[in-house]
Structures are given as structure tokens and as C-alpha cells.
């Protein structure tokens, strides 16, 4: 940390979030919390639209599984978030720099996401797959930059660790709400008006983030720290260039120690790999199971949303009661269980009833989707809360971007091969059997993350030193 106001907070590890779901809902009237919720929605809107949901659109238009898998690489800009973080930390946003670095880059990137989604809407996947892919990459670059600016604002605007937990929970709720809109609700919209118009409407929905960016206040302490650093580095340009590239990484490794920092990055890299790998094939799998779009939308928006909210709430409670590291272990165990359970649908040949409750039939798809949403909500909040405690003021955007890049690096690269893996597994098997084996493989990939979480839990964290002025 670079300024005196943050130095005291840096001397003591930030506690896990003290707030739970009802605290967040009760605090939504507070301006910063409400803005954080809106920014979470804005951050979550493009993620699935260049990922799993795009795969559904392409599958509807008869695009091959291998191509669907490869097009998931439109999300590769998320892998180099540390690049966008360095830009957000050190370069003023074009045209709107008077808003400040965080708010200015939020606005520029949000307009970029909207333009990318509208451009995708204007393309026909059957005849214009390459232009559609280009607009998807544009959306990915803008979305990754937006995430970097929003994460920095969330961390820097918090007055203390308690408010950081509250803002993190609000952000997570907003993000999850956006995933429901882009995974579930959009299926109903696409049935009603078609995929192109649906994408155009979601591009227009980025106005939620634009409004929040304009209403937010720039974090004064962080802005002052960055301005002071820029003035100092202007007197030594060669040193400042080296600092821009390597400074945030050197500070991170010096702050935590090389061994501990490497362990942290390794754990983060593998933590959501199971979920990333199965992502591009999820919607094609549901199509192969002959589950109708309205059914998928209803389950995701109904019991799936309930499961996600419960996971977020219990993830926050677990972080408070047993600590971040123990919560990470629980989340790492829950994820592969939820993912592997989807294999049951393939082996059975479709959905089936598993229980009768109050005169209603509960199907396997509903039960598995609910548990899966719970597991992802629980583990997601645990990981975001943990990573939010690891950055230094003045380097917030770059360092947090380094962590989120580590999170996405392996998954974003490997998931592009998901379609070819399913096609390879289909040799000598039915398509549903191939999908079942694929989901079991994705679940097994979660084992190394569990191991690294356990190892991390046994290591004592190094006392955090303030970043150099």
C-alpha cells in the first residue's frame, strides 16, 4: 500500500465478509451498495453472451461442436486482465478522463461491450461466422477491461474490511443476477424474438452499467496515490516503464513471499477449471437431452436462482465462521460433485423424476441444477472474497487482474477443446454417453484444486508489508 490511510489496514489481514444475504438486501438503499449491485449486473452481462449462451445460439443454427468450442476462445481477453489492469492503473481513459481512472474506464469499456454485442446481433452465424467471432472478441476485450476497472473501484472505495465484504456480496448478487438474465431469461427472449434481436437488446441493457459509472464517486485516496506515482515516475521514465510492467508483480510476490504467492496463483488457476471446461458444452448437452428452452429457462431462473442465492449466503456465512481458506476447501469439493452429477442425465437418456413433494414432481435436472448453482455460488463468493484481500493500493487494478487472469488462464484455454473432446468420446458410443463421460472428466479435473486448497490452509500467511511509495 502506498499511502498512510491504507497502511494500517495493510498491517492486518482483512477479515472475511461479515455480511450475509439479508444484510446485503437491507443495505441496497445505501448509494454505494446499490451502485455495486448495478455494476455487478453490468460486469456479468457479457460473460455468458460470448460463452455458453453463444454456444446455444450457434447450436440452434447448426454450427458444429468443434467450432462452438473454438469460439469460446472469444473470452481469451480475460486471460490477460493484468494488461488491462496496467492500462487502467496508469492511463487516463480517452475522452472521459475527467471522470477519473476507474469511472472513465468503466464508461469506455461499457460502451465497447454494448457495441460488440450489437455487432454480434448483426451477424448471421451460418454465413458470417468470422465477423461474429471478431465482434465477440471485441466484446471480450471490453468486458475484461470493465471487470478490471469495477474490481479496482470495489476494493478501493470500501471504507474498511466490513464494507468490502458488503460490496463484494452485492457485486456477487448482481453478477449472478446477470448470469440468470443471460443464461435463462435470454432463452425465452430468443424464442420470442430470435437470437439476433435478443443480443441487441442485451447490448442496450449495458445502460445499467453506464448509469452506475456516471453516478459513482471516484476513490479519492487511490486516485491521489496514482497521480503521485505518475508525477514521481515522470522524472525517471526508464524506471517508470520497468515499474509499469513488473512493479505490481514484484510487489505481490514480495508482499506474500515467493512460495506462498506461487501457491496462491496455482490454487486460483485450478479452482474453477471444472466449471470452465464443461461450460461450452452445457447448452448443446441440454439440447441433446431434448430439454426445451422454456424448461431450461424456468429451472435456471427459479430453483437455480434460489440455489445460487443460498450458495452466496452460506458462502459468506462460512467465510465468517470457519475462515476463507476452509471455505475455499468446501467450495472446491462441492463444485466437482455438482458437475459430475450431470452425467446421470446422459446415462438415463434424458430427464427423469426423482421425488414427489407436495404433489409436485421433482426431476433430476431440477435437483442437479439447484445443487450445481448452490455449489458455484458458494465457491465463487469464497474465491472473490479471498482474492479481494490480496491487493495493494495503487496497484489494485493490476494485481487483482493478475489474480483473475490466473483464475481464467487454464480454463479459458482448455475449454476451447471441449467440443473436440466430446466428439472424440463419441467414437463407438452414443452422444449422450459421450457427454456423460465428458462431465465425469470435468469433475475429476477438480481434484488438484482441492489438494492445493488443503495445502494452502496449512501454510501461515506472511505478515503483509505496505507497498513502496
Describe, in plain words, how this protein is organized in 3D.
The protein is mainly alpha-helical and 469 residues long. The protein has one domain (4-458): Growth Hormone, Chain: A, CATH 1.20.1250.20. The chain contains 23 helices and two strands. It has a two-stranded antiparallel ribbon. Helix 7 runs antiparallel to helix 10 and helix 9 runs antiparallel to helix 19. The protein is globular. The termini are close together. Residues 1-19 and 463-469 have low confidence and may be disordered.
Features:
469 residues; mainly alpha; Growth Hormone, Chain: A; two-stranded antiparallel ribbon; 23 helices; globular; disordered N terminus; disordered C terminus
Q: Roughly how many Å apart are the termini?
A: 8 Å
Average of per-residue pLDDT values: 80
The assigned CATH architecture is Up-down Bundle
Radius of gyration: 22 Å
Strand content: under 5%
Number of helices: 23
Number of domains: 1
Classify the fold: give the CATH topology: Growth Hormone, Chain: A
Summarize the helix and strand pattern as letters: HHHHHHHHHHHHHHHHHHEEHHHHH
Assign the CATH superfamily.
Answer: MFS general substrate transporter like domains
Instruction: Note the overall shape.
Output: globular
Secondary structure: helix percent: over 70%
Helix/sheet category: mainly alpha
Briefly, what CATH class? Mainly Alpha
Low-confidence parts:
1-19, 463-469
Number of strands: 2
User: Can you list the strand order of the major beta sheet?
Assistant: 1-2
Largest sheet: 2 strands, antiparallel
